[in-house]
Design a protein that fits this description.
Belongs to the ATPase C chain family. It is found in: Cell membrane; Membrane. GO terms for molecular function: lipid binding; proton-transporting ATP synthase activity, rotational mechanism. This is ATP synthase subunit c. The structure is a single chain. The relative contact order is 0.19. Helix 1 packs antiparallel against helix 3. The protein is rod-shaped and about 60 Å long. The chain has 3 helices and no strands. The longest helix is centred in the C-terminal third of the chain and has 31 residues. It is mostly helical. It has a single domain, classed as F1F0 ATP synthase subunit C (F1FO ATP Synthase), CATH 1.20.20.10.
Length: 75
């Protein structure tokens, strides 16, 4: 019984990374928007970095979801 409770607690704590990823994505896009408004001519050059940062941040969120699912169903 205690092992099952610990499994649920660990899975819940692992999902906190998804919240951090959401905040990271919001921060990335807000910084890009602020920079694009200050210097519109440089916005096109920074778009590839925006997409890369978005992909890496979302990958960390998906990884935390994967860890939570593994804790729930594989352990």
């Amino acid at each position: 019984m205690e092992a099952e409770a610990a499994k649920f607690l660990g899975a819940g704590l692992a999902t906190l990374g998804m919240g951090g990823a959401a905040v990271g994505v919001a921060n990335i896009f807000s910084s890009y928007l602020a920079g694009a408004l200050r210097n519109p001519s440089a916005a096109d050059g920074q778009f590839a970095r925006l997409i890369f940062g978005f992909a890496v941040t979302e990958a960390l969120g998906i990884f935390s979801l994967l860890v939570a699912l593994l804790l729930l169903f594989a352990v």
